[in-house]
Specification:
- The chain contains five helices and no strands.
- It has 149 residues and is mainly alpha-helical.
- The termini are far apart.
């Protein structure tokens, strides 16, 4: 298996590891702090990705991205349920999945354009890091979850 395929496969595994770690941590410390840590860590890893010069570093950064994303994934779903109630989950997640589709599709085109014009993905990673930092800032402004019984 090539290093890039290995990095992508291990990234998916590390998403699961992050989810198994993030869930219990959010039960203990609250959902919002774990989500903020995961998002902020991803922003740092995106900046780190600008320095990738070998496939082994690519694999390492893919593992970190997977783990950080895994921390956020299931905890975010629980946070949305805590804030808006379980009855709103389907509507909110439909909007989120729709947004992910738009960002994922346009982001790939923009990243390709950046690479074609600069012969590097560094600016793409920097833009991703800035977007993630803005997300962290905006998310920090949201209210704390309500513990529902």
């Amino acid at each position: 298996m090539g290093s890039i395929k290995l990095g992508i496969a291990l990234s998916a595994i590390f998403v699961m590891v992050g989810a198994m770690v993030g869930g219990p941590l959010s039960d203990r410390f609250g959902r919002k702090p774990i989500i903020l840590i995961g998002l902020a860590s991803d922003a740092v890893v995106f900046l780190f990705a600008t320095t990738i010069s070998s496939l082994s570093w690519f694999v390492n950064s893919a593992l970190l991205m997977g783990f950080c994303g895994g921390l956020v994934g299931p905890v975010f779903g629980a946070y949305v349920g805590d804030i808006f109630g379980r009855h709103a989950l389907a509507t909110i997640f439909s909007l989120i999945i729709f947004s992910i589709g738009i960002v994922g599709g346009t982001g790939a085109v923009i990243f390709g354009w950046i690479h074609d014009n600069s012969h590097s993905y560094a600016w793409a990673w920097i833009i991703s890091s800035i977007c993630m930092a803005v997300t962290v800032f905006l998310y920090a402004l949201t209210k704390k979850e309500i513990k529902r019984k």
